[in-house]
């Protein structure tokens, strides 16, 4: 039975619709969301749904909009303590989903209100940008076909949030986290932009080792490294997702990766190259998938990774990405990068909501510099 949640204050041009997170193609084993009613004495944060323009995304050949939806949670004291500034956590959503889907899946406002009112977590701003594209996901990479998503997250978005909200605008007070494709994005961006963030949390990261030429007979190998569809995009009923795909499922994921990692402005109408042609592997194209694998390029970024105050990774023991996440953990150990790695009973998505509240928020509370309440 659903318990009516406590009221929250919305500041938005768009009313946030209820989003059903169950779908035939979703890989998250979503449990019914039961929100405990908050005591009347507890304060609630402010929720904003905004548009953030990305100069880095302008002119992308896919035609995806450069104005992106962004969901922002402002902590309970934000409205009343006008002189106070706050650390910021940026959370990257998974493949096949939207920021709104993860906002609802993780029950971001209620989870944040709960732990911040309890005093177990320092107050912070939480930001979820939407990276859903014509092929269901940007891979948080830099490509003329998809646009420069690395620049959008690390420059355009951070600059906007710092200039429009009372943030503590330095790396020591910025954290980056994500799940699945978002975990991949977290690791990718962390390795390249250590001057933007100081702590990272990668959940059940996909795409750590990509080798589309490993299939038999020249067919791309549908390995566990293909990004898993985390939750239905579009209108929340499984409609509207995959509008650019031809064949859906793995085919759409392959297109998303090709657009991000093998762009070709001279190859319309899709403007990317696939790793096979006429049943044969194209080694020079397949190599681009391998080159975008964190397990391959992590060795190049050891000095950057050692700049982080804290690095956390986790994965469920029943997740088909568990092996590759363990390999990443072993690589960090081999390279002398201090980190924490945790496994838990669960699959790719059935404990994301719980772990956001009990692990992700406390992790950043412990590691990001904050400003005391006045």
List the keywords.
374 residues; alpha/beta; Rossmann fold; 10 helices; globular; disordered N terminus
Can you tell me about this structure?
By secondary structure, the chain is α/β, with parallel strands linked by helices. It has a single domain (9-367), classed as Rossmann fold (3-Layer(aba) Sandwich), CATH 3.40.50. The chain is built from ten helices and 13 strands. It has helices spanning 99-105, 108-117, 149-164, 181-192, 249-261, 283-291, 294-297, 302-305, 322-334, 352-367, and strands at residues 9-12, 46-53, 67-74, 88-92, 125-129, 142-143, 147-148, 174-179, 199-203, 276-277, 280-281, 310-316, 340-344. The chain has a nine-stranded mixed beta sheet with strand order 1-2-3-5-4-8-9-12-13, with helices on both faces. The protein has a two-stranded antiparallel sheet with strand order 6-7. Strand 6 (142-143) and strand 7 form a beta hairpin. Helix 2 packs across helix 10 (352-367).
């Amino acid at each position: 039975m659903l318990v009516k949640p406590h009221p929250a204050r919305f500041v938005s041009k768009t009313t946030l619709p209820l989003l059903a997170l169950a779908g035939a193609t979703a890989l998250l084993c979503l449990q019914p969301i039961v929100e405990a009613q908050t005591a009347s004495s507890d304060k609630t944060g402010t929720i904003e749904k905004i548009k953030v323009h990305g100069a880095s995304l302008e002119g992308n050949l896919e035609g995806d909009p450069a104005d992106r939806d962004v969901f922002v949670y402002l902590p309970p004291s934000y409205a009343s303590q006008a002189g106070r500034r706050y650390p910021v956590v940026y959370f990257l959503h998974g493949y096949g989903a939207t920021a709104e889907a993860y906002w609802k899946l993780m029950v971001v406002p209620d989870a944040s209100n709960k732990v911040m009112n309890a005093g177990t977590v320092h107050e912070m701003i939480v930001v979820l940008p939407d990276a859903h594209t014509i092929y269901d996901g940007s891979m948080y990479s830099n490509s003329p076909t998809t646009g420069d998503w690395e620049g959008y997250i690390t420059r355009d978005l951070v600059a906007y949030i710092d200039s429009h909200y009372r943030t503590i605008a330095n790396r020591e007070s910025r954290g980056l986290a994500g799940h699945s494709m978002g975990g991949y994005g977290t690791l990718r961006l962390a390795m390249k932009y250590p001057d933007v963030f100081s702590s990272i949390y990668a959940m059940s990261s996909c795409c750590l080792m990509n080798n589309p030429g490993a299939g038999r007979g020249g067919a791309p190998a549908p390995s566990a490294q293909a990004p898993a569809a985390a939750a239905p995009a579009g209108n929340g009923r499984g409609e509207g997702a995959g509008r650019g795909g031809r064949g859906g499922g793995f085919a759409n994921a392959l297109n998303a990766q090709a657009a991000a990692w093998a762009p070709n402005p001279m190859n319309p109408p899709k403007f990317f190259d696939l790793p096979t042609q006429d049943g044969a592997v194209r080694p020079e194209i397949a190599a681009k998938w391998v080159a975008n694998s964190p397990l391959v390029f992590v060795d190049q970024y050891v000095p950057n990774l050692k700049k982080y105050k804290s690095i956390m990774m986790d994965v469920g023991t029943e997740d088909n990405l568990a092996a590759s996440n363990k390999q990443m953990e072993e690589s960090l150990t081999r390279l002398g990068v201090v980190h924490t790695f945790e496994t838990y009973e669960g699959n790719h998505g059935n404990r994301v909501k719980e772990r956001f509240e009990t692990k992700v928020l406390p992790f950043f509370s412990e590691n990001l510099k904050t400003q005391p309440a006045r």
